[in-house]
Hints:
The complex is a heterodimer of chains A (176) and B (148).
Chain A: H1 4-18, H2 20-50, H3 54-78, H4 84-95, H5 99-108, H6 120-149, H7 151-175
Helix pairs in contact in A: 2-3, 2-5, 2-7, 3-4, 3-6, 5-6, 6-7
Chain B: H1 4-7, H2 14-45, H3 47-67, H4 80-101, H5 114-147
Helix pairs in contact in B: 2-3, 2-5
Amino acid sequence: MENFDVFMTVIANRLMRDSLYGTMLRVGVGAILSSVDAITDILVVAQYYREGLEDKAKILLMMITTNVIIQEIIVLLQYRKKPLRVIFTEFLTSLFFLRPAMDAYRVSINYETPETVIDPLSELIANKNTELATESIPGCILQFYVWLRNPTEAGITTLISIGISALTTGFTSALM
Amino acid sequence: MMQPNFYGYLPEDNTARGQCFFLMVFIASVHNISRTISIALLASSSKTLAFAFFGCEMVFYVLIKLLRRDFIYWPPLKGKAVVFIVSLFARLIIKTIVDFSGCFHMRHPYELGGIMFSVTLFWAQLSPFVALTFYEGDAKEVRTIGFV
Lengths: 176, 148
């Protein structure tokens, strides 16, 4: 009886370790950060257009577009055996920047569906890798470059966006 | 634990595991800022220089993978062209992610491998200082011209 509390603590710790709630929290925060990152990037694009930095705005817009295009290609590969309606819905999900939230939701509920190429967690990682390599990292470099060259025009929005991009990159990297 | 030798740095204790995760996020974010600053400074000095630095790193990495006969990426795929394109694409994306976030998981032999991971981390820490010398060099030149 004297070791009962130790025994129960070990069981409770193991239960907490294997629980899905930790994963849910991590992927949920990751999804929120990704969405906020996309929103701040769009705000920065608007800021650049306002301040006459059209060429920089176009480059940043191109990075966001590349991310969406590659995510759409992943959708086409992942759901190619599914009905056209499903492919179309998934296509729209990526187009409206809802992919991080959708992936996080599917991982959190342990979503299983036949006729897909990879499981939801691998799909989430593939989309996160794409987002990092095509949007967060190059976007961060471009915004820092613009801030160095034109600090007044870039404004505080750029600095906030750089901070969020760096945090998103760090969080996604640790989550993988 | 699926691979204790690989993920062994993550403690079994819940609090310690949370702290470890927080530190991983912090290290990756700081690493990202450090590397971003270096490329942005190089680009401010000369865009060609920035592209040359980054391009050379990528070419060096792909050459090392080819020389070690480790270029083909691990997922089972069919068709030589598909295998080549997917492998090149995956290798470049993974290298970019490690360059700018120091993602610990990518030190796996299937990804960057231990030596390349260590070299990449070392270079990432060194690169802001290298970039700063180029940036300061330009600034000094401008100051000198202005003074003359």
